[in-house]
Structure formats: C-alpha cells, structure tokens
Amino acid sequence: MGTIEYAIEAHHLKKQFTVSESGKGLWGSVKALFSAKTRIVDAVNGVSFAIRPGEFVGYVGENGAGKSTTIKMLTGILVPSSGTARVNGVVPYEDRKKNGMNIGVVFGQRTQLWWDLPVRETYEMLRVIYRVPKNGFDETMKKLSAALDLGPLMEMPVRKLSLGQRMRCDIAASLVHRPGVLFLDEPTIGLDVLAKENIRTFLKDLNKTDGTTIILTTHDMNDIEQLCRRLIILDKGIVIYDGATEDLKQRFVHDKLIEVEFHEPPDGLALVPELLVVRESGTKKWLKFQNGNSGIAAAIGKLASMYPVKDLSVREPSVESIIRAIYEKTVLLPEHKDAP
Amino acid sequence: METLKIYLLLALTSVRARMEYKGTFFVFLFAIVFFYFAQLGVLIVVIARFKEIHGWTMGEMAFLYGLLTFSQGFTTLFFNALINFDQLLIKGEFDRALVRPLSPLGQVVFSRFEASTIAHFVIGAAALYYGAKLSGIVWTPQKALFLPLVIIGGVLIQGAVRMFVTAVAFWTLRNSSLVHTVVFSSKEFIVYPVSIYRWGVQFFLTFLFPVAFINFYPAQYFLQKSGENLFHPALQVLTPAVGLVLFALSLLAWKTGINHYQSAGS
User: Fold this and answer.
1) Which of B9, B21, B98 sits opposite A77 (nearest CB)?
2) Which residues in chain B have their CB less than 8 angstroms from residue A67's CB?
3) Per-residue pLDDT tens digits for B236-246
C-alpha cells in the first residue's frame, strides 16, 4: 500500500444477467425449461469511478439501480461482464484470497457470524482465518468492543442477538483484520434511530482515525449527510452524479423554502419580488427564494420591514429531497463526465 | 500447513455448532446406522437365498459392499456440505465464502463437516474384514498397499461426482433433485457386481459415469476374479488414476461455475 493512488477503481464496469422468461403457472415453468427464451438485463452498464485512500463515499440509487451488483464486483463475488475493477491494486474477482485480506465487507441483510456460536468465538475464528497475530488481535478487539459496546454480547449465541446488536457485531467482524477498505451494503437497514446513530458515530471515527476507505450503500439519506463527503448516484446502471455531497446541496440552494407566520394576514400576494409565494394557509405563507440581485437575507429583511412578521424559518433542502427529485426527474443533472 | 490448521478449525467448529443440537445429532447418527444395517440385511438375505449372484459369493459381495461403504464414509465426511449446496446459493450465503482469504470450496466443505458418518466406517470396515476373510483373499504386499489407494480413488470419484452436480447449481441455482438422483440412486447400482447388467449399463458405469471403479474393478483385482473381465483387465488397477483425473476435472467445473455465479437479490 502507501504508494497506491486509488483504493478503489472501477473502469467501465458492466454486468449483465441472463434472466429466463418463465410463463405463468406450472405449464409456464415447464415451457421455460425447454425454450431458450431469455432476456439480458444490464444491471450495471458502464460504471467508472476512482476513490482515494481515506475517502468516505456514499453509493446510492433506487432499488435495482445496480448498487449491490457494483459492490459485489468490487468485493470479488461477481465477475464483471466487461470492464475492470481494482481494490488496493488487486483485481478482486481474479485474486480472491489476496483481495479478502485487504477488505472488510458488511451486508446488512445477512450475517457473517456463525449462527450457533457465541459472538466471541466468531472473532476467534476470524482471527485464525485472517491470520491476525494474537497481540494485535487483542488490541483491535479491545478497541472495537469499547467503541461498539460489545462487552455484554460476547458470550451470547449469535442467533439470540437483536438486529441492532447483530449489526454491531457484524461490523466488528469485518474489521478484525484491520482492512484498508471497508464495503458496507446497507448497514443501517431496519435499525432504530439510536442504533443507527451509534453506528454512524463509530464509522465516522473509524474513517477519521484509522483512515479506512469506506464505501457505503444506503437508502437512508441521513447516513449520507452525516458521513459521506462524496456521493455517487446511480440510476439504471449508470453513474448520474459523482461529486461532493455539499456541492449537490449547493446546487439546489435556491430551493430554500421560507415559512413565515404573520400577525395578521397581509393582503396582496406579491409581497417582495424576490420571494415567490408557493402556498398559503391562514396567517402562514410559504415562500421560495428566487435568485435576485441581493441575497436571501436582504429579501427577508425587506419582508420583515414591510409586514408584521410573527415567526420565520428557513429550511434547506435535504439531500433526501434532492435525490428524490433527481429520481423523479423533476430536476435534471448536467451530463455526468466519466471519472478517470 | 497453516491453511490446513485453519480448515481443521473450521471443521471442528462446524461439528461443535451441530452438537449444540444434540438431539438431532444422535437421531441422525441412529438413522444412518439403521439405514445401512437394513441395506446390508437385505443383501445378506438375497445372497443367503441364492447362495451367489452371478458367480459372486457372500464373502465377495461383502467385500464389494465394504469398498463402497468405507470410501463413502470419507466422501460423506468431506463432501457432505455439497449435497445442500444450492441452499447456500439461493440464500446468498455463498457470497461470504468469496470475500474471505480462503478457497471458497474449502470453506463450503469444511463448514459442514459431517461427523455422524462414523457409521459408514464401522459398517464398511466390518464388511471389508469379513468379506476378505470369507472369500479367502491372499494378501500380498502389493494388495495391502493398493487397498488404501483404492479407497482414496473411490473417495475422489464420489467426491468428483458430487462436485460436478453441485457445479451445475451455479447455472441452474436449484439442483437438489439432480443431486439426489445422481448421488444417491446411482449408488444402488454398484451394490451389485456390474457384471450382472447388460452391456449398455456396464459401458455407462465404466466409461460415462465411472462409478464401477469405486468397487467393482478393484474388487476383481483383490479377489482375483479373472473369469469375467469386462472390457479390459487393466481396468482393475485404474481406480486411483480415474479418481485423480475425475477430481481434477470436477475442480475445473467448479472454478468455471464460480465465475458464472450470479449471487442472489440485493
């Protein structure tokens, strides 16, 4: 490592699946056995990006956009139909053993712990599988146990853990060998707010102090806002946004919504020319800031000086609402240039 | 060496995990013992009635049965996890094996190590011992050395058959019916000497689906049954070679299969 410029590289990655078209009912499936009627699905259709060591990247997209398929190619589970991937300089699906030593993987939907064993023994097994020296292992486990509060869970059989407990144990399991790159596929799925928060705090710290490169897929945009400085958005197997999370928000900053409550409803709709009324109800009005010559603050000042304002709040668009708008095609992103 | 230790630990852990359910473990052990004693019992009744089958005496038949069952013991010990392999694929649990720094096949095999197969060894060893004794095998150094090679060859052949049919699951996903037909039903053929079948079946069991090498051909060598050479007498000593070639081919099939793996859902 050290000299490697990129921790993760995807170069025109494509993955096609052959799906056989089976008809309805028993007869349909019998016919499907003998007919060669198949359909080719492009799950990932030419994805390129490069991630530097130490980055924390959010990889999002709707269901079926190709997130998991990309992650599976990067972790060596699937062989791409075309294109190449490199993780720490290793082609994951060609040298699975070497790749396995470099990466940690968490699938939110399945555990990698031994179902019938106490948690502690899973870690002991992983220590042996990853050939971690005993003293280094003890140190790592002490840290993980403190950060993820594993102490009370250690002697419990995995099958008795709650989802949140299991996820904490699974994340620790992916880090026993201190991998340089961590893949997280929906690590917060199905967790309550507090459990999510604990995991986010842990991941943030891991990325900061250990410099672990992390790529995270999620449907929870709070994960992205709180953790990922960089965001890659995937749609129908193609990257439609790759850039700073903050930039995405900046781009939609003119969508700021102002909620104003007046002492008495002002007559006349226009109010201030920079502020467009989008909705009103009783003494409340919702205004959208339109780019004028002066800034939003000046516009609000003007409004407050002219009308009796009782209460006022400015709401920034959340990443969630932006991404929803992108999915729904109510906003269009400029054509995305391929990463290197 | 280090790798071997890791697999051993995997195997021990899987046995321990299964022992968590002690009831199931012992019921299963009992079921195996019962099944094989029943099978052996039928065989003995048949032979006792007809004295011999196609020139094979009770002792010779027992030896034939012993070769099959004893090598099947090792096969079950090592390759039993492959029987339900499609379940790992369907549930997407195979993914895990692909992201770890160990051979995926090794992980599958050693993660469901089957200790209750001890029944096969007991029955197989007993059948071999009494079979050899009853049929009066004259043990020479060559024969004594050849016996373990034949067992290993038989294990490789049976292991290869299991690997081939499980590799099919990488394409078809579900293959349990194929596994049960090929792995379990085919075995019934070679409980009897292959020479009792028509030419077509003999050809099939020798060249296309060469399970006759597990017990029939080597048994001819040990028992010096020169009267009924099928195809060529050299086949009697080919078991280890057939085992190696088949196993190598089945590994290739598995490697190809892994690269066709489509994983499950998200």
Assistant:
1) B98
2) 266
3) 888 999 999 99
For every residue of A13-48, DSSP letters joined together read EEEEEEEE---SHHHHHHHHHH---EEEEEEEEEEE
CB-based contact B99 A128, cutoff 8 Å: no
Tokens describing residue A97: 């053993």
- Interface contact A77-B5, CB threshold 8 A: no
Helices (H), A130-192: 134-148, 163-173
Please tell me the distance from the alpha carbon of residue A262 to that of residue A281, in angstroms, as a whole number: 11
Q: Report whether B153 contacts B243 (CB < 8 A).
A: yes
pLDDT digits over A182-201, tens only? Answer: 999 998 888 888 888 888 99
Q: Using CB atoms, pick whichever of B20, B101, B266 lies closest to residue A109.
A: B266
Q: Tell me which H or E stretch contains A10.
A: strand A8-20
Q: Would you give the end-to-end CA distance of chain A in angstroms?
A: 20
- A256 interfacial to chain B (CB closer than 8 Å): no
Please tell me if residue B178 touches chain A, with a CB cutoff of 8 Å.
no
Q: How far is CA B222 from CA B66, B67, B145, B217, B239, in A?
A: 13, 11, 11, 9, 13
Per-residue model confidence as pLDDT tens digits over A86-113: 999 999 999 999 999 999 999 888 888 8
Residue bearing tokens 């060591």: A53
Sign of CA dihedral B47, B50, B54, B60: positive
- Minimal Cβ distance to A110: which of B20, B93, B259: B93
Q: Write down the ipTM of this complex.
A: 0.78
- For residue B257, give how far its alpha carbon lies from the nearest alpha carbon of chain A (Å): 11
Q: Phi/psi at B259 (nearest 5 deg)?
A: -75, -10
Would you list the domain boundaries of chain B? 2-260
CA distance A317 to A323: 10
